[in-house]
Write a structure and sequence with these properties.
The chain is built from 2 helices and 9 strands. The protein is an alpha+beta fold. β1 and β2 form a beta hairpin.
Length: 120
C-alpha cells in the first residue's frame, strides 16, 4: 500500500510540472475562486486523493492570475477564459485547457485527470 501511495504522489508531482491549469463557467467570474483537489482518475481508476494524504488547491484570482499548490509546492501562472466552459491556464509558458462543469474543474493530460471542486 505504501508503494501505491508513493507512486500516486510521484505522478501528481510530475503532473504539476506538466499542467498549466484551467477553470470555466458561463462568465469569467465563474472561474474565480478556490478549487480543492478531490480526486484523480488514472487509467479509468478513480482515486480519492485524501485516502493517500495528497492535498491540492488552485486559487484563481479576478486579476488574471492563479496559484497552484500541490502538497505545499506552490507555482503561479496566468489564466484566460477560452469559452463558457473552458479556461486556459498558463504555467511556465505552457498552456493547459481545463473544463468546468457542475462545480468541478477538470485538468486532463494523457490518461490522467485531476478533479477539483470549487470551495463554497
Amino acid at each position: 500500500m505504501k508503494t501505491k501511495k508513493i507512486a500516486v504522489l510521484v505522478v501528481v508531482v510530475m503532473l504539476v510540472g506538466v499542467f498549466a491549469l484551467s477553470a470555466c463557467g458561463s462568465n469569467e467570474k465563474d472561474f474565480v475562486g478556490t478549487w480543492t483537489l478531490k480526486s484523480m482518475v488514472q487509467a479509468d481508476v478513480d482515486l480519492a486523493v485524501e485516502d493517500f494524504g495528497i492535498t491540492g488547491e488552485i486559487v484563481i484570482s479576478d486579476d488574471g492570475k492563479f496559484t497552484l499548490d500541490i502538497m505545499g509546492s506552490t507555482q503561479s501562472g496566468t489564466w484566460k477564459a477560452k469559452n463558457a466552459t473552458t479556461v486556459t491556464l498558463t504555467l511556465s509558458g505552457d498552456d493547459q485547457d481545463a473544463s468546468v462543469a457542475d462545480g468541478k474543474l477538470t485538468l486532463e493530460q494523457d490518461a490522467t485527470k485531476l478533479i477539483f471542486e470549487k470551495a463554497k
